[in-house]
Amino acid sequence: MTKVTRRRFMATSAASVAAAAAGGAGAETRKPKAAAGGAPPGRAFPAGFTWGAATAAYQVEGAWDADGKGPSVWDVFTRRGGTVWRDQTGDVACDHYHRYREDVALMKEIGLQAYRFSVSWPRVLPDGAGATNPRGLEFYDRLIDELLKAGIEPWLTVFHWDYPLALQRRGGWRNRDSAEWFADYAGLLSTRFSDRVGHWMTQNEPQVFIGMGHLSGQFAPGEKLAFADYLLAAHHQLLAHGRAVQAIRANAKKPVRVGYAPASDSYVPASDSPADVEAARRATFRVPRDYWHNAWWIDPVVLGRYPEEGVKLYGADMPAFPASDLAVMRQPLDFLGLNVYNGRTVKAAANADGWEIVPESLGSPLTANDWGVSPGAIYWAPRLFHQRYDLPIAITENGVCCRDWVSLDGQVHDPQRIDFTTRYLREVHRATADGTPVLAYFHWSLLDNFEWTQGFKDRFGMVFVDFTTLKRTPKDSARWYGKVVATNGASLFV
Ligand code: GAL
Question: Measured between alpha carbons, how far is 292 from 296 in angstroms, rounded to an integer?
Answer without folding.
Answer: 10
